[in-house]
Amino acid sequence: MSDRNPVSTLKNDTFLRALLREPTEYTPIWIMRQAGRYLPEYCETRRRAGSFLTLCKSPDMATEVTLQPLARYPLDAAILFSDILTIPDAMGLGLYFAEGEGPKFERPLREEWEIRNLAAPDPTDRLGYVIDAVRQIRKALDGSVPLIGFSGSPFTLACYMIEGGGSDTFSRVKTMLYDRPDLLDHILAVNAEAVTSYLNAQIEAGAQAVMIFDSWGGALAAGKYQRFSLKYMKQVVDGLTREKDGRKVPVIVFTKGGGLWLEEIAAIGCDGLGLDWTVDLGDARRRVGRRVALQGNLDPNSLFASPQAIEAEVAQLLASYGAGSGHVFNLGHGVSQFTKPEHVGALVEAVHRLSRAYH
């Protein structure tokens, strides 16, 4: 159930204001994969669920784990607990998780007829459990912080759908890209339609910002990235609901390994641009100007170090970005399962305390 007037009922809208480059009192922070295996309470819920997919497909449990990091830390946003591969699973590819091997598909796209038969699923039907979770989480948050919805990018989804799982080389995808670009285009067009309707359904159900995770776009060659990843993300951004209940719904785009193409990503109409840890934050700000907010970009492995070292890294990143709004503090990728929970607490505290000097 969405708020009648979220502008007045949202107690902490710092994250949304930062994404829209409006003045804030401090730099907001949330963490990619903030509800995850580094938290003992998450591991306990995951044990009760019996499997990762059961956890994802139970709105009650998805709500529970979404809220767990917010009970520990004063984070400035919640992110829906789900998986980027829900869309191809809903397309009938048979998602499963092999112990120690990550996600796999029982029926990856191998034959041309399978590709031609591919269709975007109705998110309110085959993905209803996700939409139910969004509604439930939004209600449970009770206006404390905004809720972020998300999806994988069309290209990243295609990588898993064609390879049948994760890959170091993406040889099947790249063979199709060079030999049969028409087939890859068909998959990407269907995926773009699916991602657009999926994110719009999340927004309708209560997501107050959305993020597109382009995890594998950085594996593409120059020119091929623009042709097979960025083009389709722009289609998604163009098709999204950008205002709900009188408030703008910001869109964040994150291409891991996309530091070479920040100006082009910023030009597709997104509000926020995610940065991995290989990018210099101050240089990124100079490159994109005031076109987009920036999100990132602490090296996740820095959280293995001492709280004093973490604070020093936070100070360096805040100084690199400089004064003013338009920065959402985050990691340059997901938090490691081996991170000590108290180190995440030290990170959040340092960002909130040190960033006030820049606002």
TrEMBL record:
Positions bearing the site annotation: Transition state stabilizer: D83
Reaction equations catalysed: uroporphyrinogen III + 4 H(+) = coproporphyrinogen III + 4 CO2
Keyword Cytoplasm: yes
Molecular function via GO: uroporphyrinogen decarboxylase activity
UniProt feature coiled coil, ranges: none
Subcellular location: Cytoplasm
Reported function: Catalyzes the decarboxylation of four acetate groups of uroporphyrinogen-III to yield coproporphyrinogen-III.
Subunit structure: Homodimer.
Protein name: Uroporphyrinogen decarboxylase
Gene designation: hemE
